[in-house]
Amino acid sequence: MSESYGDHPDQYGDLRTPPGEGPHPVAVLIHGGSWRSQYRSDMLNDTAEDLTARGFATWNVEYRCPDQHDWAATTSDVAAAISHVSSLPNVDLDRIAVIGHSAGGQLAMRAVADNPGDIAVAVTLAGVLDLIEADSRAVDDGSVSNALGGRYTDIPDVYHQSSPRQRLPMGVDLIVACATEDDLLPMSRDYAAAAARAGDSVDYIEGEGDHFAVVDPGTQIWKDIVGALDRRLRG
Q1: What are the angstrom distances between the C-alpha of 95 and each of 35, 118, 152, 205, 233?
Q2: Any idea which fold 2-234 has?
Q3: Quick one: which of 39, 20, 21, 19 has its CA closest to 30?
Q4: pLDDT digits 0-9 by tens, 7-22
Q5: pLDDT tens digits, residue range 181-210?
Q6: Is residue 143 within 8 Å of residue 137, measured between CB atoms?
Q7: Residue 143, SS3?
């Protein structure tokens, strides 16, 4: 079921609910794609369907991307989509997970850092977690500076506000996962270790696969991620 959380055509999410009596734990899914509008929320449809089959409601959200709008629009859309969970039917507001993949991992962590509220667990899957480092490395052909509107040296305050690595501690439970063949693996390792040092409760998960293994229901690393999510939300 599609539902709008704003007036723009890209401000919507797809809600899936499992059978049976609720309220159900709910996972907010934030897709990646280098913060570019050609990539859409359907990237996480299989992920959402698998979670729903396992008893989670899922809210797979779309948002305005900065290549057609601006960074502020993207950031505010993700925040609004998460806030909209309180309006969804038959979900347990005490068991909310925010899950982001790749660029969506950055957006998820930034949104939770801005407003931890009632979030029970924040999950980053192969996330771009240190925007300052990513900009210095020109990760993905400069997608970070293109999204934020400038290099770190030009707009350091925007980078510090937006970069999950610079926002620790988060103050919520964290699941950090990345596959061993992913170029972003060192970033996930560093983020998980830094979060733990800062006092956050962290499950760090690493396993075989590429950048998309962490959202592929057929992989072992995905099963490990779901196991950690189960423990955090369902005990």
Answers
A1: 27, 8, 36, 21, 6
A2: Rossmann fold (3.40.50)
A3: 39
A4: 999 999 999 999 988 9
A5: 999 999 999 999 999 999 999 999 999 999
A6: no
A7: helix
